[in-house]
Amino acid sequence: MITEAISQLLLVDYVETVDLIDRFCPDLSIGSTLLQRKGLPDGSFDAATLNNALHHVPVEERTGLMREIRHVASGPLYLKDHVSRGLVDVGLLMLLDAIGNIPFGVKISAQYLTDPEWKTLAAERGWCIGECVPIESYRAGAFAFFFPKRLGSLYRLEPV
After folding, report:
1. Portion of the chain with pLDDT greater than 90, in percent
2. Where are the beta strands (DSSP E) in the chain?
3. Which residues make Cβ contacts (< 8 Å) with residue 105, sequence separation at least 6?
4. Distances from the Cα of 45 to the Cαs of 14, 41, 69, 90, 146, in angstroms?
5. How far apart are CA 101 and CA 87, in angstroms?
6. What is the mean pLDDT of residues 9-17?
7. Which residues are CB-neighbours of 43 under 8 A, at least 6 positions away?
8. Is it the case that residue 97 has pLDDT exceeding 50?
9. pTM for this one?
């Protein structure tokens, strides 16, 4: 759905969503690619985005994923994900993930990064952080109190 919004809001010719699991909504107007064991050709896309996904990727697989995205995207990677500043945040993020994923039958396994770890991950995988924007709270009431805006950031990673 995020990719559909991007296609409607940005002045681009084509937007495609890529995933390892077929979770595509059939009534969207965007293209979709289900990756098998083969990757995509270098420079297949002008930019890429990962939304609340990287913290679910096992640590030992993040290097390969980030390098593959670097190869297929000739431009920036827009990355929205969780940021941990300690054990309290890890607990809050685990609860938030449970609330957001269990109703959809998604297996929850996550390792959250600190802001310095995000910078290291980017640098070691062929990216530099061009900009980091804390996510303004879009929650209200008790959710805004228990899950503050410090728990997420939006990064624009530029290829090095």
Report:
1. 1
2. 16-19, 31-34, 48-51, 77-82, 127-134, 152-159
3. none
4. 10, 9, 9, 33, 38
5. 21
6. 68
7. 71, 72, 73, 74
8. yes
9. 0.74
| Short-list 113, 115, 109, CA closest to 56 | 109
Cβ atoms of residues 160 and 128 within 8 Å: yes
Give the rounded distance of the alpha carbon of 15 from its chain centre.
16
pLDDT in tens, 55-95: 888 888 888 888 888 888 888 888 888 888 899 989 988 88
Q: What is the CA radius of gyration of the chain?
A: 16
Q: Match 């084509």 to its residue by tokens.
A: 14
Q: Which residue has the tokens 């609340």?
A: 52
